[in-house]
Amino acid sequence: MNYYALANGIIGGICLGFGILFLFFGLRRKNNKRPYLLFALFALAYAGTLFLGIRYHTATSVEEYVRLVRWDDVPINLAFIALIWYVAEYTKVRPRIFLWGLTILFVVLAITQIIRGNLLYEEILGLDALIMPWGERLAYLEATDSIWSNLETGAWLTALFFMVYACIRQYLRGERTVALILSIGVLWFVAAIGTELLARAGIIPLFFYGEFGFLGFALALSLQMSNEVIKTEEDLAQYRVNLEGLVKERTADLEATQEKLLHQTREQATIEERGRLARDLHDEVTQTIYSATLISEALPAVWERNPDEGRRNLTKLRQLVRGALAEMRTLLFELRPEQLAMADLETLVRQLSDAFTGRTRIPVAIQVGGTGQPPSDVKTAFYRIAQEAFNNISKHAGAQTVTVFLQQRPDRVILTIKDDGLGFDPGSVSGEHMGITIMRERAESIQANIDINSQSRQGASITVTWPKAG
User: Fold this and answer.
1) What are phi and psi of 343, to 5 degrees?
2) Buried b (16+ CB within 10 A) or exposed e, 273-303
3) What is the pLDDT of residues 338-360, one digit of tens each?
4) Pick from 9, 188, 243, 246: most CB atoms within 10 A?
5) pTM for the full model?
C-alpha cells in the first residue's frame, strides 16, 4: 500500500480545496482582498509541490527524477513568495525592501532551475530508493549539493527567520492569539526542515519530512482565515440587526416628526382660518350691524316725522338684521362643516340669500319646489356654487333684483340663480375673475351639469342640474 503517496495526495487535495475556496473569497471581496489572495496562492502552490512530490518519488530513472524536481522548484519558491507576503499582511510587519529582495531571489532561483534542471547538484551519484516499513518504495537522488542549492536553502531559512521575527513583533504588540496561531505553522515548518536536515546528516533515519513542512502553515492559517470569514459573517449579521434597529428608530423619528409637522400645519391652518373669519366678521357682519344700529337709532325720529319713511327704514332694518344673522350662521358653518352637511338645502339657500341682501340691499326672490334631501356631498356642492354665484353678483353685476329657483328631490336637484344686472360675455371674460372655474369644478365633483347664460345689459343666469342629463 502506498501510504506516503496517499497521504501526500490527501494533503494536496485539502490544500487545493483551501486554495480555490479562498481565491473565491478574495475575488468576491471589495475590501482587504490581498490576504485572501496571497493565502490562496500559497495553498495552490503547496498543493502543486505535493502532487509533484508523488511523481518524482516514484521515478525510475535519474533523468525522470531531475526533470520532475526541476519543475518542483517553481511551486516551492512560489509558495515561499506568497507565504512571506501573507505573513507581512497578517502581522502588519512590512519591511518592503527586504520582502522585495527576497521575492526577487526566489524568482531568480526558480527561473534558473527551469533553465538548467541539474543546477542544484554539484555531482549526481545515482538514483536510490528508501523502502518504507510497509514496503512502499520512495525514490531519491544521491548527489552533492551545489552553491545554488545552498543559496536556495539560505533563502528558505531567511524567510523562516522573517516569519519568526514577525510572530514575535505581533505578539509583543498585544495580538497574542493570532500570533500564536501563526507560530504553530512556523514551529511545524522548523520541525519538518530540521528533521530532514538531521536525516540527511545521518543522525536520524532518512525520511522525506520536507513535503509536510508547509502543512502546519496550511492548517493553522486556513483555520485562522476561516475564523475571520465566520467572524466577518457574524459582524455582518450583527450589523444587519443594528441597521434594522436603526431603520426602525429613524422610521419612528420620522413618523414623530411627520406627526409634529402635521400638528403644526393644522395649527397654522386653524390660525389662518381664524384670521379669515375675523376679517369676514369685520368686513361684512360688523358693517351690517353698524348700519342697523344707525337706522335703529334714527328710526323713532324718522317715524314721528314721516311714518311711511319710517316703515321703509324698518323694512331695511329687518333686512340688515336678517342678513347679519345669516352671515353669522355662514361663519358658524365654516367653523363646523358637519353642521353644513346636516342642514337642508332650502335653508342653506335662504340663508345665503338673506346674507346677500344684508350686505348689498338687493332683494332676493326665492321659489322652492319638491321635497326630500339629496346626499350631503351634493348639498354641500350646491351650497358652495350658490355662495360663489352671490359673491359674483355682489362684486360685478350691478343688479337690482335676484331670483332663485330651487327644485329638489332625493335623486335630482335643479338650482337657477338669475339677476338683472349688467351681464357679460362668457367668451370674453376670464373664468378665474368671475369664479366660473370654481363653480364648474364643484359641479364636476358631483357629476352635475352647469349652464351659464348671459348677454351684455341683459343680466345673467346660472343653472346647476344634478345629476347630468343622460
Assistant:
1) -70, 155
2) eeeeeeeeeeebbebbbebbeebeeebeebe
3) 666 677 888 888 888 887 887 78
4) 188
5) 0.50
